[in-house]
């Protein structure tokens, strides 16, 4: 009897040694596509960042570092990018990454012959993709775009995978295991990852919990070990009991003003609105202080390109706002509507504070709540709105952030058309000199502020809660969760 | 046989009408499934690729009849949002909803009906009055609130169950039952209250009838009268209510599934509507209309079993 018992104990002990280390992360929504070239949603990238890699990949500082490529060089004229492939990088199916896979992936983005590409940037800028030997690839641009390097974070995928959607295969530290719609995305440690030190845990489950309250309860009960994107109330509840990490997240929360609509076509009116709004108060009330005030469409986390001081360009001044309104012909103010996507409580709360602030200068704003899919269709694509509040997630490239205001940008929902702005931004990406480039991008930001194109509110802090024994979290200036460095202690 | 054919025809007509209305509604309401899937950061090239794949620019009538013909070959189409067969998505969710319905219906019948009888039996004495007050409260409290409170008590404080963690039956039946019990209770409570009140009222109604007086004058005791004579007559309306509740739960307890993060059909329906996934919504509508038609049919059969005077017509 005793022998059986001791055997049992040994068996149990062995079991606990070999038991898998697993992290459950709460996420809000389903991935849009598992196929990395077809996926657009930030919520998807957040998860699949761990599965796919490009020739390059972003690091937590917001730089791009070699991944499948081991090194790269850019020709002096800035048009030719040369990548040398790393030896022995393997796909999750065990096959080595070949030049064929690299060419297949890049051509899938660019499009070839009859088949259209899946990335309009590759379609527009890349003129030639060429293999030189079997370890070097050369990409030639047709127009200078000094932010194009960031595009090479696009995933390299195996050419012989018949279905990238049902069975996504990449080279990242984790391999895809399963996706159950509305329930979970499961990824597991890839044992042959080119960096043998990573990842540290065996399995990660992204559990799809759309309800905030339910996610919080699951976290507190220990069912979920990592809860990203806490709101201020949740952060207060968890404060002191759990490990919370908070940082700027490279997001721009703004109130867009439809410049094609009266009275917003008048600069004085837009300035008055900017003067009426007190960002600090919004940050205090809506984000409980967890936010950084902005003055233009750039978060301070984009150090190199961020124009300082713009957040104080419009100091809250009710008297000045009223007199500007009077000059514009609205001494009594006017009535307007703020259209807000109802699924973003954060923006809804912001709208409520703004309504009160606008009231002080005589503008009566009414909040119109609409569904997210209607917002995308009617406001974002159809540009049918007066004012709206939204958060735009950050990009690695300052050009990708600022191009939203270009006259020919398909989703320029601000209806901002300024040739001078177009010139600034378009000439900035042609600058190979980084300081000159930064100076031009900064001028573009100043222009947005001076012209009061929108009310730039804040970069709401990113707050993540971790189980007490979970360590190694890295904050990125991107919408990603890097699970590879996390470990239990 | 004829009766079944007629029922089948009525069912088909219902489904056809409901589907057509859904198609037209989706045509009218704003929102584009391609944009809804890809979101703010969609690239023009990605939008183009998805739109071409879906073929949404075809006329409404063509798409509708395409869907109907697909139906006859058992093909519900492909979900726009999830790029998977609609039938696969719904079948995946059914076990959760079915077990949830089964557990909560068991609770409702086992607790609701006896409580109602008890309450009628002791009509204006303490047990009757207290049951009636409690059931009044039970009906007034929304189930999502009960859900959150239950989760707080049993999940966070007592730690008997783990909130937000659904375990499928195939993995661990005990855990599966534990993860379904609380939501089932939350769904059942208001319905228990309804059934209790309904049973109480119909029983008391029946007690006024002449056959009851006759039974008493025959010298039967209260319990004998109640269980042998009254109950059979009183059950007919109660079964109608139970049928309605069943159909409701099978159609998806949207709020409870959201609160407990259960992957049931209710959450699927909400997702499908919010991303304008017409094929998936159509599939769900088909499922729900089937549930309602079939439940009604079953209730009709139960009627005939309880009361032989009732005939299917």
Radius of gyration of chain A: 25 Å
Q: Find the count of extended strands of chain B (DSSP E, 2+ residues).
A: 0
Helix content of chain B: over 70%
The SS-based structural class of chain B is: mainly alpha
Shape of chain B: globular
Number of contiguous helices of chain B: 13
Quick tags:
heterodimer; A: 489 residues; alpha+beta; 6-stranded mixed sheet; 4-stranded mixed sheet; 14 helices; 29% helix; B: 313 residues; mainly alpha; 13 helices; 77% helix
Please tell me about this protein's structure.
The complex is a heterodimer of chains A (489) and B (313). Chain A is of the alpha+beta class. Chain A is built from 14 helices and 23 strands. The longest helix of chain A has 17 residues, at 2-18. The two termini of chain A are 36 Å apart. Mean pLDDT of chain A is 90; it is low at 12-17. With 313 residues, chain B is mostly helical. In chain B, helix 7 (143-157) crosses helix 8 (173-207). Chain B starts with a helix and ends in a 7-residue tail after the last helix. The chains are: A alpha+beta (489), B mainly alpha (313). At the A-B interface, helix 4, helix 5, helix 11 and strand 19 of A face helix 2, helix 3, helix 5, helix 7 and helix 12 of B.
How do you describe this structure in short?
Chain A is α+β, with helices and mostly antiparallel strands and 489 residues long.
Task: Summarize the helices and strands and which ones pair or pack.
The complex is a heterodimer of chains A (489) and B (313).
Chain A: H1 2-18, E1 22-27, H2 42-48, E2 56-58, E3 64-66, E4 69-74, E5 80-85, H3 99-110, E6 111-112, E7 115-116, H4 120-125, E8 126-132, E9 136-141, E10 174-180, E11 184-189, E12 203-208, H5 212-220, E13 226-227, H6 232-238, E14 243-247, E15 251-257, H7 267-276, H8 279-286, E16 291-293, H9 318-327, E17 335-341, H10 345-359, E18 364-370, H11 372-381, E19 387-393, H12 398-402, H13 419-428, H14 434-450, E20 454-460, E21 462-466, E22 470-471, E23 487-488
Chain B: H1 2-28, H2 33-38, H3 44-54, H4 60-72, H5 86-121, H6 126-140, H7 143-157, H8 173-207, H9 210-217, H10 222-250, H11 254-259, H12 265-274, H13 278-306
Helix pairs in contact in B: 1-13, 5-6, 5-8, 5-10, 5-13, 6-8, 7-8, 8-10, 9-10, 10-13, 12-13
């Amino acid at each position: 009897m005793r022998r059986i018992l001791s055997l049992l104990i040994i068996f149990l002990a062995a079991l606990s040694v070999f038991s898998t280390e697993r992290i459950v992360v709460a996420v809000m929504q389903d991935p849009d596509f598992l196929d990395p070239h077809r996926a657009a949603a930030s919520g998807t990238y957040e998860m699949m960042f761990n599965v796919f890699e490009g020739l390059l990949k972003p690091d937590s500082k917001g730089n791009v570092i070699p991944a499948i490529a081991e090194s790269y060089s850019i020709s002096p004229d800035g048009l030719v990018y040369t990548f040398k492939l790393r030896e022995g990088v393997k796909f999750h199916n065990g096959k080595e990454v070949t030049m064929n896979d690299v060419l297949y992936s890049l051509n899938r983005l660019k499009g070839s012959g009859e088949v259209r590409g899946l990335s309009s940037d590759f379609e527009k800028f890349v003129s030639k993709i060429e293999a030189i030997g079997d370890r070097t690839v050369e990409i030639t641009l047709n127009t200078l775009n000094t932010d194009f390097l960031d595009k090479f974070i696009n995933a390299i995928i195996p050419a012989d995978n018949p279905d990238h959607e049902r069975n996504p295969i990449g080279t990242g530290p984790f391999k895809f295991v399963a996706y159950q719609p509305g329930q979970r995305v499961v990824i597991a440690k890839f044992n042959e990852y080119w960096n043998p030190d990573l990842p540290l845990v065996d399995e990660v489950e992204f559990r799809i919990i759309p309800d905030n309250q339910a996610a919080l309860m699951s976290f507190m009960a220990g069912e979920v070990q990592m809860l990203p994107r806490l709101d201020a109330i949740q952060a207060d509840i968890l404060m002191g009991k759990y490990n919370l990490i908070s940082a700027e997240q490279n997001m721009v929360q703004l109130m867009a003003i439809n410049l094609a609509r009266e009275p917003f076509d008048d600069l004085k009116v837009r300035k008055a609105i900017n003067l009426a709004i007190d960002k600090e108060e919004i940050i205090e009330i809506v984000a409980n202080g967890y936010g950084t005030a902005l003055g233009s469409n750039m978060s301070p986390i984009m150090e190199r390109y961020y124009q300082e001081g713009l957040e104080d360009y419009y100091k809250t001044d009710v008297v000045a706002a009223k007199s500007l309104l009077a000059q514009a012909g609205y001494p009594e103010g006017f009535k307007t509507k703020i259209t807000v996507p109802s699924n973003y409580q954060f923006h809804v709360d912001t709208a409520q504070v703004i309504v009160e602030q606008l009231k002080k200068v005589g503008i009566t704003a009414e909040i119109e709540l609409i569904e997210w899919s209607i917002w995308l269709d009617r406001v974002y694509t159809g540009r049918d709105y007066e004012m709206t509040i939204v958060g735009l997630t950050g990009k690695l490239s300052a050009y990708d952030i600022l191009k939203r205001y270009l006259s020919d940008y398909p989703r320029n929902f601000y209806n901002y058309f300024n040739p001078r702005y177009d010139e600034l931004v378009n000439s900035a990406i042609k600058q190979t000199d980084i300081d000159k480039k930064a100076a031009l991008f900064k001028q573009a930001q100043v222009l947005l502020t001076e012209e009061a194109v929108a009310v730039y509110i804040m970069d709401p802090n990113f707050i993540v809660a971790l189980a007490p024994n979970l360590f190694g979290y890295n904050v990125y200036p991107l919408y990603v969760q890097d699970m590879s460095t996390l470990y239990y202690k | 046989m004829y009766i079944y054919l007629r029922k089948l025809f009525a069912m088909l007509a219902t489904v056809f009408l409901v589907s057509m209305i859904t198609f037209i509604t989706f045509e009218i309401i704003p929102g584009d499934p391609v944009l809804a899937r890809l979101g703010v950061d969609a690239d023009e090239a990605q939008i183009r690729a998805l739109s071409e794949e879906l073929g949404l620019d075809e006329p409404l009538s063509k798409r509708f009849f395409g869907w109907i013909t697909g139906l006859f070959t058992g093909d519900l189409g492909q979900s726009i949002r999830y790029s998977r067969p609609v039938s696969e998505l719904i079948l995946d969710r059914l076990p959760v909803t079915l077990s949830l319905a089964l557990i909560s219906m068991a609770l409702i019948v086992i607790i609701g009906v006896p409580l109602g009888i008890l309450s009628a039996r002791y009509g204006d004495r303490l047990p009757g009055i207290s049951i009636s007050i409690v059931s009044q409260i039970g009906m007034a409290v929304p189930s999502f609130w009960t859900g959150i409170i239950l989760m707080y008590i049993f999940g966070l404080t007592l730690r008997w169950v783990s909130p937000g963690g659904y375990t499928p039956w195939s993995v661990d039946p005990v855990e599966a039952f534990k993860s379904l019990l609380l939501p089932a209770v939350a769904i059942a409570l208001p319905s228990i209250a309804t059934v209790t009140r309904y049973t109480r009222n119909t029983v008391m109604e029946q007690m006024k009838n002449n056959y009851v007086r006759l039974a008493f004058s025959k010298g039967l005791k209260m319990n004998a009268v109640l269980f042998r004579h009254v109950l059979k007559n009183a059950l007919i309306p109660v079964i109608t209510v139970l049928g309605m509740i069943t159909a409701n739960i099978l159609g998806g307890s949207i709020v409870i599934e959201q609160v407990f993060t259960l992957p049931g059909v209710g959450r699927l329906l909400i997702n499908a509507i919010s991303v304008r996934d017409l094929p998936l919504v159509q599939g769900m509508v088909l499922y729900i209309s089937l549930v309602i038609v079939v439940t009604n049919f079953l209730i009709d059969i139960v009627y005939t079993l309880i009361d032989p005077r009732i005939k299917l017509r």
